[in-house]
Amino acid sequence: MQPGNRNDLAGKHTYPRGACIVSMRQNLTVSQSSLTADEAATLERVQTVTRLLDEAVRIPGTEVRIGLDPILSILPVAGDAAGAVLSLYPVVEAYRLGVPSRTLLLMLSLVAVDAVIGSVPILGTVFDALWKANQWNYGLMERQLDS
After folding, report:
1. How far is CA 140 from CA 103, 115, 124, 126, 135, in A?
2. 97: buried, middle or exposed (CB in 10 Å: 19+, 13-18, 0-12)?
3. Is residue 74 within 8 Å of residue 50, measured between CB atoms?
4. What is the DSSP letter of 56?
5. Which of 13, 114, 116, 143 could form a disulfide with 37 if both were Cys (CB 3.0 to 4.6 A apart)?
6. Measured in Å, how far apart are the chain's first and last C-alpha atoms?
7. Taking every pair of C-alpha atoms in the chain, what is the biggest distance, in angstroms?
8. Angle between helices 101-118 and 89-96 (to 10 degrees)
């Protein structure tokens, strides 16, 4: 089946098992699952926010990528607070899609660790660059929707 083709089941657009959903910005492969168009669009939005927060920029001369989260944490208090609020977006979307409570608690704990340790001056900025809570949360969300 070609990427982007959909079946219309009971008025809802779904992507067949193993379909590859392609956008102009990124590729998102969904395997062994049948996602509604809303779920697929939500995953795509969460992946975009995740990339922005965790890997927006490559550090020149290395393969290391950082996002807005460690950049924002350079600003004391306000930057850390903004990063924490932005990191809650994947958790809110996971809740909206019905991800189990246990997974939501794990996602919240990853954000909490990021916010608490990330708020430590200097060390927190380095921690934010290495701790990819948003990527982990995206992976947890994707696995729950895949099952």
Report:
1. 7, 19, 24, 24, 9
2. middle
3. no
4. S
5. 13
6. 21
7. 54
8. 170
Reported as a single tens digit per residue, the pLDDT across 46-72 is 999 999 999 999 999 999 999 999 999
List C-alpha distances in Å: 90 to 19, 63, 95, 128.
23, 25, 9, 17
Task: Compute CA distances 79 → 2, 73, 83, 104, whole Å.
Answer: 43, 5, 6, 24
Over residues 87-102, the pLDDT tens digits come to 999 999 999 999 999 9
| pTM beyond 0.90, yes or no | no
Q: Please report the pLDDT score of residue 147 as a whole number.
A: 78
**Residues paired with residue 29 on neighbouring β-strands, in sequence order:** 20
